[in-house]
Recover the amino acids of this structure.
């Protein structure tokens, strides 16, 4: 049986890399993004290479639109994998973050994932199989000062994923949370900043970014292994291990991060 996957946030970054890697495996991929031009360009490039990729326009905050897309896919056959990957970044000390900022992060990073699950999970139950892969972040595995709303949203995605995993196993459905670290994507470049200088903040990060392609390969390895949580990069693994081993020590590390954000504050 041909494997069918839907990837959201597919026009660039990790999403585009996932679409490319899945297509190379022979998976039939629906590449979804609100950036119609970007996702169509990706699909056209992969189609020219002989892969089976269809571009679809989708805003993950539109629950009804998500439902219509899943229904359209179901008319053609089963859906094996849903990669709830769409998300946005937001950085800045919390006193500079507005209520509107909070709403936007919650609507995309949390409700966007919830909308995908609400649309696809019942279908997967009826099928008796499927895999929901939700892109969280290393920021969801420990404290992240200077990006509290983003971290809160990713903690929520991990909590949602691990809780649903326990429920979904009774129906033959798998659930995983992918947790990338510092990845060279447009999410980082386009992240909305509040009271922070982008160049200073980037220069303060002590590690080199992972490529989106390497990140996608790591996610797929975790999916193949049906990992509940897929920590990506040694840095994320160490950070997560430290937080579980010694929350107090992890908070001290977080204070160092907080100082880095203050130093990157705009003057």
């Amino acid at each position: 049986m041909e494997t069918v996957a839907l990837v959201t946030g597919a026009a660039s970054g990790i999403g585009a890399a996932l679409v490319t890697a899945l297509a190379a495996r022979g998976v039939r991929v629906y590449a979804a993004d609100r950036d119609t031009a970007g996702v169509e360009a990706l699909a056209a490039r992969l189609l020219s290479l002989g892969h089976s990729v269809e571009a679809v326009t989708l805003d993950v905050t539109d629950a009804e639109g998500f439902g219509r897309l899943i229904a359209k896919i179901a008319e053609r056959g089963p859906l094996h994998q849903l990669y709830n990957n769409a998300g946005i970044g937001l950085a800045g000390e919390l006193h500079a973050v507005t209520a509107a900022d909070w709403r936007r992060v919650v609507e995309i990073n949390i409700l966007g994932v919830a909308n995908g699950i609400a649309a696809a999970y019942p279908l997967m139950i009826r099928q008796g199989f499927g895999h929901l892969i939700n892109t969280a972040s290393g920021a969801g595995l420990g404290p992240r000062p200077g990006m509290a709303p983003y971290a809160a949203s990713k903690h929520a995605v991990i909590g949602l994923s691990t809780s649903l995993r326990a429920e979904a196993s009774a129906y033959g459905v798998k659930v995983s949370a992918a947790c990338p670290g510092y990845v060279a994507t447009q999410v980082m470049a386009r992240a909305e900043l509040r009271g922070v200088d982008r160049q200073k903040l980037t220069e303060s990060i002590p590690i080199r970014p992972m490529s989106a392609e390497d990140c996608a390969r790591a996610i797929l390895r975790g999916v193949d292994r049906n990992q509940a949580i897929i920590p990506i990069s040694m840095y994320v693994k160490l950070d997560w291990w430290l937080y579980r081993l010694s929350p107090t020590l992890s908070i001290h590390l977080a204070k160092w991060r907080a100082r880095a954000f203050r130093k990157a504050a705009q003057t």
User: Anything to note?
Assistant: The radius of gyration is 18 Å. DSSP finds ten helices and eleven strands in the chain. The chain has one domain: 4-263. Residues 99-127 form the longest helix (29 residues).
